[in-house]
Structures are given as structure tokens and as C-alpha cells.
Amino acid sequence: MAPSHNIVEIGSTAALDQIIKNLAKDQLLVLDFHAVWCGPCHAIAPVFQQLADKFPHVKFAKIDVDAQQELAARYRISAMPTFKFIKNAEPIDELRGASPPQLQAKVAQYAGSPPAPKPKPKPAPVVPTGPVEVSLHHLVKADGLKGLGEAADHPLSSIIGPNSGPKGNSYVESASDPQLLLVIPFSKPVKQINAVTFFAVVADYQAPKTVKLFANPPASLDLASADSTTATHELSLSAADIRGNRIELPSAKFKDVSTIAVYIKDNQEGEETTRLDSVEFFGIES
């Protein structure tokens, strides 16, 4: 069965908060709190998908309790699967366990009627626009992608690039020391990099703290020299910065970038190793 376009996999607390904020009045949101290791969760997943296709005016979202522990705590999840029913930003009901009849009944009970179709608006005149900012994730190439100091079983390629895994389930981790040097090449020069996001709340005590960014770094840059080499820009990440929040960069310093290197010097609580679940750059392609 092909995945439903009406189901969103929640990757952060901020992402769920934005979905709830954007709900129309009395619109239903169904949250499926699940776990990779949970057999009943996998068993009821096709039913959840069928409901998402049947009720396109209802929002459906899946939350991995291991990857999103903050959300699991917020909604007091103690068993999987647990389904939460949200309206007007407030939980109105829940269902514990993998019971297709009960899940179908509750969705039907709270779904309401589909909104009346809106009249087609007149096409707006085409207005020329300037360059549009996009995520640069799709430009990252495998050739030259490397993580110096990474653990063999948790490499940089698992979170960024063409072979990266699902967000929340994959991460890069240093092997034995807090330091990591992540070298990220692009398939073509990027005209301008405007911002970056870091997500590392699954193990926030291991999250990066002191970070140096190098635009078009020298080929000789390594862990030994990164600390003493002048960076294009330096960051000191706070607890808020590691939650996927946008961090603005001095874009004038990040122009015509073919490769960007991220040197992580230490982590939030001085742990032996550093863990990062995702890093993403935003800018103008060309």
C-alpha cells in the first residue's frame, strides 16, 4: 500500500505545534504515538492509512515515541500504540491499543463534515519574483561527504546526503571524543547560504555546543587543525538552537559555496561523545 499523502511524520515538537496552530476551527487532528519495536503499532498502521485516505479533511500524524520523547511526555504516553484526538488545540479523547473498530469509530465520531468547496479564485497576474530560498539538502552529494572523528556505526551519511535515513531514527556520533568535523559537498556551487538548523534533542546532553563553519574549506582541514583555523563563522548553540530552530548566518560570507565544513568542538554537558540527529542549510541555489 502506497503511503498516504494525508499522514505527516512529526520530526520535532515545533513541527507539531505548527500543525496544531494551523488547524481550522473544529478540525480534527489524530496523533498516532508508535514505536519501531511495537508489533501492534505495525499491525494497525494500514488501518490508520486507510482512515487518512477516507477522511481527507482530517489531519493525521505519526509520532515515534523514542525519537520524540518530549512529545510523548507532553501527552503522557505510557502504552503503544496510543491515539490522541485533538480539536481546537486541545485533546478531546484518546484510544489505547490497536483496535481497528474502535479507531474507525472514534475518527468517524469526531471527523465532522468536509468543508464546502471554495469557489475558484481568479488567477492572479504573474509577477516576476527574486531568488527563492530553499533547503539545500537535495544538493548534498555522496562523493566527498565525510565525517572526521565519526563512529563507524553512526556516520554523517546517515543524516545527510542521498543515502540518509529517516529523521529521528538516524544520527551521527563521534567515536571517542566530543570533536567532529563534518565535510558537506554540494553537487554545484550554492549562490548563497542564509541559515542553518541543528536538531539534537533526542540526547540533548550530547548535542553540539561550540560550532565553527568553514565555507569552501582547504582540503588540508582536519580535526587537528580545525580548532586553530579561522572559521567563516562561529556559533555557540543554546538549548533552543538544538531544537531545529532557524539560525541566521551572515550570508555575505557564504557566497558561491561548493563545500561547507562543520567543526563541532564540544557538547552541551561535556559528554565523552557528541550526537547530532540532523543539520540542514538553507539558501539560494543559483
Automatic annotation (TrEMBL):
Record SUPFAM superfamilies: Galactose-binding domain-like, Thioredoxin-like
Thioredoxin domain residues: 1-112
Transmembrane segments: none
Cellular component annotations (GO), alphabetically ordered: cytoplasm
Keywords carried by this UniProt record: Disulfide bond
InterPro entries: Galactose-bd-like_sf, PITH_dom, PITH_dom_sf, Thioredoxin-like_sf, Thioredoxin_CS, Thioredoxin_domain
Domain PITH: 125-286
Protein name (database record): Thioredoxin domain-containing protein
Native source organism of the sequence: Vanrija humicola (Yeast)
